[in-house]
Amino acid sequence: MAETTKKTNGRTDALVLLGAAVGVAILVNALAVQSAIRLDLTDQQVHTLSDASVAAAKALEDVTVTVYISKKLPETLPTPQGKMPLKGIDRAFRDKLAEYARAAGGKLKLVFAEDGSPSVGTIEEQGEAAKLETFSSTDAQVTGNTLKFQKYVLGATFHYKTVSEVMPKALNPGFYEFEMTQILLRLKEKYEQSQLMKEPLAQGKAVFDGVKACNEAVQKAAKVEEKKDDDAGLSLKGGNDPNQKRVAALQAATADLDKACAPVAGLVAGDGAKLKGKNPFGDHLVDNAAEFDKAWQELKRAASGQAPAEGQLPPALMVQQLTLLLDQLFREVDRAHQTLADSPGRKSIGFLCGHDEFCPFAENSPLVDPQVAAMLGQSNPMMKQIVQAATQISQAVDETNGKIGDNLFTKRGYSIRRIGPDEAVPDDVAALIVYAPRKPLGEYARYQLDQTLLAGKPVVVLAQSWQVALLNMQAPEDLGNEMRMDWSTMLPTASNLDEVLKVYGVELSKDPILDSKHVETVRVTGLVNKGGLQFQTQQDFPYALIPVANDFDRGHALTRSLASLSLPYTTSVEPSKELLANKAFDVSRVVRSSASSLRKPGPVPVLPQTLKKLVLDTPPNGPHTLALAVQGPFKSAFTGKEIPKRPAPEDSKDPQKAAQKPTDAEYELAKRAFKAEGKGKLLVIASNLGIEGLSRADVLAGFDLSKFQQFSPDSIKAFTQWQANFQNWQIRIGQISHLLNENLQFLSNVLDWASAHEALVAIRSKGDTRRPMDDLEPEKQKELRLGALIGSPLLLILLGLVRWRVRLRRNRSLQA
Amino acid sequence: MTASAMIQVRNLVKTYGDKNALNGVSFDARAGEILGLLGPNGAGKSTTMKILTTYLSATSGSVTVDGIDAAVNPLAVRAMLGYLPESTPLYSDMVVYDYLLWCGEMRGLARADVHKRLTDVARVVGLEHVMGQVIGTLSKGFKQRVGLAQAMLHNPKILILDEPTSGLDPNQIIEIRNLIRSLGQNHTLILSSHNLAEVRQICDRVVIIHQGAVVADGTLDELEGRVASRHHLIVGIATTATHDADRLKSLLAATPGAKSVTFSHTSQAPVPTAFFDVEADTDIRSALYERIRGADLTLLELRRKSLDLEGIFQSLTHSV
Amino acid sequence: MKPVWILARREMAATFDSPIAYIAGALFLVATGLLFFFGLGGTDDFFAGREATVRPLFEYAPWVLAVILPAVTMRLVAEEKRQGTLELLVTLPVTDTQIVLGKLLGAIGFLVVALAMTLVLPGLVLAIGHPDVGAIVGGYVGLLLIGTAFLALGLMASTWTQNQIVAFIVGMMLCMFFWTATDALLRLFLDQPPPELALLSFQSQFTDFARGVIDLRNVLYFLSVTTIAVLASTYSLRSRHWQ
Prior knowledge:
The complex is a heterotrimer of chains A (about 800), B (about 325) and C (about 240). In chain A, about 45% of the residues lie in helices and about 20% in strands. Chain A is α+β, with helices and mostly antiparallel strands and about 800 residues long. The N terminus of chain A is likely disordered. Chain B has about 325 residues and is α/β, with parallel strands linked by helices. Chain B has a six-stranded mixed beta sheet, sandwiched between helices. Chain C has one domain. Chain C is mostly helical and about 240 residues long. The radius of gyration of chain C is 19 Å and the shape is globular. Classes of the chains: A alpha+beta (about 800), B alpha/beta (about 325), C mainly alpha (about 240). Chains A and C meet through helix 1, strand 1 and helix 24 of A and helix 2, helix 3, helix 7, helix 8 and helix 11 of C.
């Protein structure tokens, strides 16, 4: 049997060795999971923490990061753009946080939330409590009669000393580093600033806490079991009415409620009054707290069983609505408090408004004084309707602007301030943005720009010299006809930026820049008739008016890590000879168009095909500068001139504005504060980045109440045109919306640069940047494709043939 | 055995599954000797050679080449060997020159040396005119030469050739035999064959393997001496219904001088003819004839079997 | 190490002497090219994306490699076994490991040539845009590693049989299993496969390369798979001793 032993030995040995090898491999791989050895080959080290991030992580002592990651994340997440893959996102998130922890060298601690006891809740519940945003995929669970979507959470909270920041939803790995570093930088500033702002913050917190306690007490007391949601309205008259029960419950809890809610009034009058006027968020907080108190008093009255005053709802219903209102107001207070608490780490950026700029704020004043509207309505019901409709459009415009401001800036952590044409730039504004005015800047606004620049605050000017309408809506000539969608024009705007900037040595041209090769597309939506049915179609046309720039000043923070930038409807901006000659100035051509670009006095035909022909027929004269940054000792444009007086606010009906009437004393102060020279930072971008301003004045062009005293067909036509104007704005944004994402990144870079967060600028651009390819004719595409498809295999076979021939010859020579 | 043994094979046992291919084979090969491994197909010649060349390991037993244990240091042993496996497997899509060049390099020869050595060997085995030809297109004889060339390329101490002439036509056989003969002048050479004539022609010494065991080991003269005294007679007899095989067998065995009789042809009775193998020390043909006639039987064939391998085996196995 | 090179050179020459190299190579190039330009469904259009990226290549090439490479490795040992040349090969003064490594290296030679031919695509993208060159380099390193792992698996399959077709089918199944099915298979047996196990799939190990990151963990993974396949092939060759 000796032989069999030997035989099996050989086999067992091999199997044992192989098993050992597998074991070692598993061990090595498991150990390597902890390793951070990686080589980042990408252009901008996209996947490696930047020095700025490492510095930010090291700068803070003892940061605790609580990480919330749902145990089982969905594979994909439905979005309007299609399914977003989430596979491996938790690993990416964890890896990135671990990278920070390593970079911080023990100063940053990661704590992972785990499912806890029912009182602590699941990870998702804990996350929600920590103000993270939950999200749902398509998988739902049916419990009883209700369909419940599974909630997921992926995010973290960062705590440093007394302050904290939230990363609510981490679904974009490309921006993890940016968001995390931003949070770390903010934590630091926030803590430092909050030390300076201790008092207002404490006051705000006191008011908030009071409101919170009251609301909690009320909501708890008012929570009555309702049979079914649907029956709530029907069973009003029934004796078992939940609303009645609620009244009873509130009455029963009167003592407790009084105890919880009585302090609110005092807090509003005390801490609230002190807080008021110091900070816009504080104001908002106090205002809402006051509203809350008012509602509470009303609720108290209604619940006490007093007979309702004339015209009021029955108490039961009142109570129900007021309870809801209280909760809503509490939420508003909560939000305001959050913003206030966050405000220390945020620098505000002023947006100049009032010249048809991109000005993302809702206007406060109503379009038409309600009293006037009522009067008008009595005299002419038709007019009433038109005014009502105009008010609706105006509200839509305001809402849109408010949302844009919220989404683009507030939610991204910027605090922005509207600066009207009649307002001075406040001291706490860190930078001024003049975003594509389409009307000339007045003397006072120019003066504000001048002095802000000379004060050393960054001034960013975006220009819009042309208004391009491609297949826009146009009100029909005759009443009753349908709106036409064929209005294509290119009209100059009334901007006087060229004149404004000339003083500072910046020559903004009004000639559009076209490109024959490096262009992005314009997305044209049209209606197509097919078999009697109308279909909406979308088609992308390479558009010479949207040149793609990829010639950047790599030395400048703004463009250090930018891959490419598409600038719709841009003109060019060049430094003057004097400016270039002046060694004291640091001039950077931040963005330049390609060599195939063409500067041509406008207007040009706007239809893509016609334009293309024109561009191909004209020799290029690029490159041209599309964005210019200048830094140096600027001289004031107002030296030796009379300083303009602040104009009276246009709308003096608004009592708040009326209070801001210019005074002589103010003017004297302004005169004394005048600076004739100062080191400044100026950035001029010759495009609006595709973000076109939407303003009431623009949409409701020609809206004049006096014209509507009498009904006329013209007024109907005007009204149709307003509607068209609003839709046209949407059409124009839609045509280039696919570029907006990237351009918004750039805009955010600009804002960070302006608020002295240069480190963030480079990090953000590391996110997924689009790298557009040149515009190619379909024939050229076909050629390239065919070349690549057939070329390489053909080459391989050719090489084989050559090899064969060579070998054949060699072999013959061997025979001899 | 002797100290000058180049190769010592001791008690080789090899089992495949439950089948024993070798049951303790032992022999020596002395330096400079041409040793023939003789045996019928399936006797274990190839297995022995595969173990010798370290292609396979023995289940037990040892092979020592020039003092080196093949199981311990197979690479050193392989370096000393040139091997031509049975049926000459070659990379058929390679050109002769490239193949030999590659073999030389694999054997650790420097490229420049290989080329020189290559031309020499090619001349020796007669491959000069096919160097640029693809191996697959060569005739069997030339392939065999290529196999020989690769085996002797690195001038090994030992050449092991497994059935080097099988499948060749007579002319080729003669050429290859001459070639091997000349190689034996300065190599230790082990070749296997089932052809005694070939072994006789080439080998100094023969080891006969039968059913996985060595049945004879000695010079040809020694072996033939052992066998020459005995021979076989094939006797064909027309049978009748009254004479069954056993009776006939005893009849033949009773012939004086006959040592053993085997019935070598089984057929159903009544058999038309029966063949007997009669072993004898002396010529008993006339006596046998008389006996058969006396028994009133018809002799159909009486033939003295030539001294072929089969015969030797039979005689050897019987004598053991 | 020298015998490994000599062996590899012969293997490569043998590969390129046989038409299979050109058939497999051309198929690989045409298939990756088509997938690159038109996507899996044939409906995508690379040019319509207007993005200067080679990403689709890295997305699809492993699929094609998982089919093509076993066709290159199927011959390596199975054919030597069938023709009997293996006997001559292993009785040369080289170790079994050297033989396996040499054959693998020779097959890598083919892989390198095939991948080099696909450089036409990044070349095209470079000509019409500004792709991230680092990401391209990373992707190619990844393809090389994943291809090597595929080759090792195919080679292993080739040592198990005398039949090239069997070697090809088994090799392809192994490659496909590691490339695609690990996740799906795990899900068959486990309701919630732990994330550590999901790391087994080539796909998840490959994504970082395509993004332009060469992570030690991913490199180690592919090298581990390759090493184990090489060891298994060596033992399979050695198994003649104890059969």
